[in-house]
Amino acid sequence: MSSFSCCWLWFLAGLAAGWLLWQLFDKLFRRNGDEAGARWKRDLDGANSKLSSLQSDLNAAGGKTTKLQSEFDAYKTSSSKLQLDLDAANSNATKMRAELDAANAALKARTDDATRTSADTADLRAKLSLAESQVKTTGAAAAVAGVLATAGAFGFVPQKAGEDDLIIIEGIGPKIKELLMADGIKTFRALADAPITRVQGILEAAGPNFRLANPGSWARQAQMCAQGDWAALRKYQDELNAGVAPDAPKA
Predict the structure, then answer these.
(1) Are 221 and 154 spatial neighbours (Cβ–Cβ below 8 Å)?
(2) Which of 137, 166, 226, 250 could staple 188 via S-S, CB 3.0–4.6 A?
(3) CA atoms in the 13 A half-sphere facing the CB of 83
(4) Model pTM?
């Protein structure tokens, strides 16, 4: 074989080897590189999306924390005022108790005195009765003030006496309140004790606009109001949707 033919064969072999190496490089690096770049971009976009979601959750948590702090500060302020009112009421009650004890001692001494007239004794007994009445009234006023202040700290404003404000119950509006009160349900205790069939009967009798109301949670809310458990009521109402518990059966 001539040297020219030999060189020619080596030249062709070199071309073939170069072509194969080029194909291998193109497949392993350039093409896969594009796919890897796209994959990395997808991963980066996914990470950015997750980061944005986490930032949104963090912002929402910060807003809720600020709101809770504000409510807590308001509660502390209300509690401080309530404590001052209670201290004043206790001081007044202590003073009246001392006066009552003094009146009792005076009554006993005068009762033992045979020369004391019946008119004087009657007058002393009247003063004693008045002092006892004032002590009871002061204690009751302090208890009512405590209930109102505690309720106000949680955003509720119950009425002081007589008819309760049933609108505090989530799911009860002014119209439904009028229906219940017209049927004799005027207090939280009355609503807590009323059978649900009675409440449903009142709503059905009022017409189709009231039949959609769901009174399933009203008795439980009214029980908390009657007991003055405003913290539990607020927590329970946060779980409700228009007065309906999440696990309540659909009508």
Answers:
(1) no
(2) 226
(3) 6
(4) 0.41
204, 211 in Cβ contact below 8 A?
Answer: yes
pLDDT at residue number 143: 43
Residues 6+ apart with CB under 8 A from 233: 154, 156, 168, 221, 224, 225
For residue 181, CA distances in Å to 175, 199, 222, 227 come to 10, 11, 14, 20
pLDDT one-digit tens code per residue, 140-190: 444 444 555 566 666 666 655 568 999 999 999 999 999 999 999 999 999
Closest by CA to 111, choosing from 99, 124, 100, 126, is 124
Structure confidence at residue 35 (pLDDT) = 64
